Amino acid sequence: MNNPTVIQAKRYGIYSCRCKTALLSAARLMSQEDISALVVVEDDGFLCGIITRTDLLRAKLDQPDRWTTESVENWMSCEVVTVSPNAHLDEVARLLLDRQIHRVVAVEEENGKQRPLAVISAADLVYHMSKEHQTES
């Protein structure tokens, strides 16, 4: 599979939290799962943002006494770069480089809303690059 789609290449489930989740809970989940971001969803499961380790650090520095109880929605990025689950990994790689970002969220459109299906990061792309040439070494 030379240039798989996002869904074909998906390695992990999607890790998410709700908008009202406390930052400390988000930090604990990221640490526990060894991930660098969580997809933020509304109560109905539709995409509303993304919170990263960098966002958590910013909150800690800006609100040292209150960051643990602050809601994710106050620190998340609302503008999430998304792709179709049928997007090919080369397309995702170009998007990451062009936008200077580390991950995209694959979504399915439902009634004008976006349901997150997968997160594809630069680390995932490097993993697939190495697997593609595994037999050459």
Could you characterize what this model shows?
With 137 residues, the protein is α/β, with parallel strands linked by helices. The chain has one domain: CBS-domain (Roll). It has five helices and six strands; from the N terminus they run αβαββαβαββα. The strands form two sheets. A three-stranded mixed beta sheet has the order 1-2-3. The chain is globular. The two termini are 18 Å apart.
Primary descriptors:
137 residues; alpha/beta; CBS-domain; three-stranded mixed beta sheet; 5 helices; 6 strands
* Name of the CATH class: Alpha Beta
Characterize the largest beta sheet: strand count, sense, and whether it forms a barrel. 3 strands, mixed
* Outline: globular
The N- and C-terminal alpha carbons lie at a distance of 18 Å
| Rg over CA atoms | 16 Å
Mean pLDDT: 92
Q: Specify the number of helices.
A: 5
Estimate what percentage of residues fall within beta strands: 15-25%
Structural category is: alpha/beta
Give, in spatial order, the strands making up the sheet with the most strands: 1-2-3
* Count of the separate structural domains: 1
CATH architecture title? Roll
The gist of it:
The protein has 137 residues and is of the alpha/beta class. Helix content is 34%, strand content 24%.
Write the SSE topology.
Layout: H1 6-9, E1 16-18, H2 23-33, E2 37-41, E3 47-52, H3 53-62, E4 82-83, H4 89-99, E5 103-110, E6 113-121, H5 122-132
Parallel strand pairs: 1-2, 4-5
Antiparallel strand pairs: 2-3, 5-6
